[in-house]
Request: fold
Amino acid sequence: CPKQLRCRVECCNKVKYDGETKNNLQVRMQMVEGNPMVSAEAVQTTPKQMAKPVWKQKCQLPVPDELLNCGRTLSVRKGWVHEQHARDASSLVVCVDIYDREAKDGLDKFLCRGSVPFREAWEATKVSKGFSTPKTVDLTPSDGKLQLSFSSAINKDYLIVNVLSADKLPGREPSGVANAYCVVRLADLGQLGDPTDQASASLPSAASMPGDFLDASRSLLVQQEDVLDLPGACQDGLVAARAGWHLKFDVVDKKKQLVLCSSSISVQQVLDEISATEGKDPVTNIAIRERIEDAMSAFQRPSSPDPFADEERCLPINKRLVMKQLDKPFKKSTEPGEMDPSSPSKPRQSQVAEAFGSALVTLGLKSGAKEREDLGTDGMELHVSFEVVSRWKGLQRTSRCPSSSWMPGPSPIRCLATLANSIVAGYEDGNVFVWDVTGQSASPLHQFQAHKVPVSAIAVLTPLNCVVTAGEVRNGLEGFSESLLRLWSSVGLELRQSVSLHGQVARCVRPLALGAPIEEIMKAVEAAGKSLEKRDKIVPPCLAVGTDSRQAKQVRLLRMNLDVE
Reply:
């Protein structure tokens, strides 16, 4: 996307956590598809061990206010984000996941999933005063069927899903019957048709250093600033941010790698509010002096403003985000005749089943599965400021980024790496240019001096969010200082790392598939401890480098250095 979002997390107030807090709590931010907070409140039915389970239980789901918002907002009219059409039948759904309770080794097994478009379910509540006509839902990946009906609460802020029965569910061996229960929630569907709250693929995240508490208060001082790429799309010749994406914030226990609470905000909402500040420049002495100088200038101002400078006319905005724990224990569905799902009283059958299961765990005859736990972290407040910056002007560069300067003359291109809407080119004079291929601008998106010798190879490591460049040495003096692989941040163009090739020349550089998300690899490395032998078996090579010297030609495989404290 031509626009980027500069986010500054100032502090986190009302911190509530019983664990270790000193130099341990950090804030993580990440772009995610769909709103993760709509799935925060899920409802679970009771298990039924029968071939055709019959539940007839009600699940009450809160309906967020923003679900029905659509139209051409300010950021859409400015061309910063694509138009969010009325939420169609495939975006927001009532999702029902069916599990087999303690199917193997005391762990619950996922069986199948069914979903109903939210709009279809909501429209069904308007047909009759009570529950709508039962609807048959196909379950995947099986041939099963699920019966659902819908109703709305009196205050219209809740959708009530009545889970009736299921047929042809996958069973466990040897009986062929599962102890099935349902988890009902609202969820956004991604481009591949899966709920976004359970998506395994994700964009790179940015994490702050552990914050410090202000005196004896419960306010965590963070002061972390990052520039985040907006997920872009090309529609009707316009490259802009995708609709439906959110910026998610997590407060994390760094030592336990435990997410305490989360919050999210729509990218379109942020851009709309920033767009609304255009023309509201504060009246200062500097602003008055600039206006007087412009009025007295002999040069005529351009008749039309620079389309890529519109963010300079907009001001940053400040937001207060209320956090909520996403993995809290499931709410319980209500049996026929029960009025309140939060009532402390439970059916007699449920009490007996829980007591019997607890006794088996105590006697060692059954392994107890780890249950969800309420950490009591709801209500934390995160204070964040947002600002739109332009990729074309390189406003996100820091002091560690190479300076951008004009080339003294033409220079041949030595290597290329392609991305979705841009090309990264390495030149003979050591420069690296990033060119737009969408036709929005004939000027380079980025330009910096990567090496003092020709750039011999270039590659983009998407999982690590960086660009790798290699320099071609031509004599012994250059081999001493420039026989290097350099890793640059693809967002801020900071130099992350330099790897010596000991006088060799890198003829080609190719990224390798990791085989698993980077988060899973880091968790496996942390579980392996500090044993180098175990870690070498876990961490896969991420880069293949073909090198050339007077003695030999080699292919070298390089791993990531994951420093786990």
Q: What stands out?
A: Confidence is low (pLDDT under 50) at residues 86-90, 298-308, 340-350, 358-363. The helical segments are 74-77, 118-124, 267-275, 285-296, 348-362, 476-482, 518-528, 532-538.
